[in-house]
């Protein structure tokens, strides 16, 4: 990732605002059906791995993963993916937050895929067919080397939503989005673990 596309806090906030406007909001509720009443991209999520990187602030640890999305819906769609990583204590880490350019460069070098796009470049229209597939890189800061079981929620690959009215007077309507849930076993101590895939134990579509 070049310095021209570095994810500054202001730029990330602008991107997230656009995502909410396009796809209708986000609310935590990891349960739902697998039926697709609206468009759904054909997706592949590759192994999640851990890497150590020497950054300008010193040595740090990061999770990284690549993905591929193919539009087989018959019409152009808008791709605006977001990725949340939830650890065993329920702490949520948004992909790209506090991730320096050195981490993206290190992950790109490891994956050695010339088709991989940085997070900013994956956002936008996605045409139909394999020839218009989008392959992207996802990186999270790893601030706890004993995270416990990990769950990743990948949103923005489906247009299906559900409106939920919370109980209680005056509560605002909540919009849930169809989201890919990836559950991983407890990896143990990550301090000596480098570039080995985490153990995926379950993958589901949920409403969140």
Describe the protein in words:
With 208 residues, the chain is mainly β. The chain has one domain. 12% of the residues lie in helices and 37% in strands. The chain has 2 helices and 13 strands; from the N terminus they run αββββββαβββββββ. The chain has helices at residues 9-23, 101-111; strands spanning 42-45, 49-55, 58-70, 77-79, 82-86, 92-94, 116-117, 124-126, 134-141, 150-155, 161-164, 174-184, 200-207. Strands 5, 6, 10, 11, 12 and 13 form a 6-stranded antiparallel sheet that branches. Strands 1, 2, 3, 7 and 9 form a 5-stranded mixed sheet that branches. Strand 5 (82-86) and strand 6 (92-94) form a beta hairpin. It is globular, with a radius of gyration of 17 Å.
Low-pLDDT sequence parts: 1-36
How many beta strands in the DSSP annotation? 13
Average the pLDDT over all residues and give the rounded result.
86
Strand content: 35-45%
How many domains make up the 3D coordinates? 1
Q: Give a quick account of the main beta sheet: strands, pairing sense, barrel closure.
A: 6 strands, antiparallel
Radius of gyration: 17 Å
What would you call the shape? globular
Q: Could you say which structural class the secondary elements and strand pairing correspond to?
A: mainly beta
Give the count of helical stretches: 2
- Alpha carbon gap, first and last residue: 30 Å
**Helix and strand pattern:** HEEEEEEHEEEEEEE
């Amino acid at each position: 990732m070049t310095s021209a596309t570095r994810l500054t806090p202001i730029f990330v906030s602008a991107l997230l605002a656009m995502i909410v406007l396009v796809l209708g909001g986000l609310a935590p509720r990891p349960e739902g059906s697998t039926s697709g009443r609206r468009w759904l991209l054909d997706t592949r999520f590759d192994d999640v791995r851990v890497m150590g990187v020497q950054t300008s602030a010193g040595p740090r640890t990061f999770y990284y993963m690549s993905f591929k999305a193919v539009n087989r819906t018959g019409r152009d769609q808008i791709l605006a993916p977001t990725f949340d990583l939830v650890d065993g204590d329920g702490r949520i880490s948004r992909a790209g937050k506090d991730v320096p350019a050195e981490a993206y460069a290190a992950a790109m070098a490891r994956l050695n895929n010339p088709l991989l796009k940085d997070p900013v470049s994956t956002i936008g229209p996605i045409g139909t067919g394999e020839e218009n597939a989008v392959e992207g890189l996802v990186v999270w800061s790893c601030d706890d080397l004993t995270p416990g079981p990990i769950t990743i929620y990948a949103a923005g690959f489906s247009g299906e939503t559900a409106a939920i009215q919370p109980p209680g007077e005056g509560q605002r309507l909540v919009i849930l989005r169809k989201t890919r849930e990836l559950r991983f076993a407890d990896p143990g101590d990550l301090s000596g673990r480098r570039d080995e895939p985490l153990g995926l134990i379950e993958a589901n579509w949920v409403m969140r």
